[in-house]
Amino acid sequence: MIRSAIEQPSRTGSGYGGRRVAYGEYEGRGVLKVVYAEEGETAIVITVIWE
Prior knowledge:
The radius of gyration is 10 Å and the shape is globular. The chain contains one helix and four strands; from the N terminus they run H-E-E-E-E.
């Protein structure tokens, strides 16, 4: 779920310090918010929250 939220987000945003935010919507489960940083082609996950 985390990977799919990053690779195919339902929406995106920006966070503090250049971090990126990806949202994945999952029917019956809610919205998964993933805060991550990019280093080259690698996504480093900072935190994951169900909203």
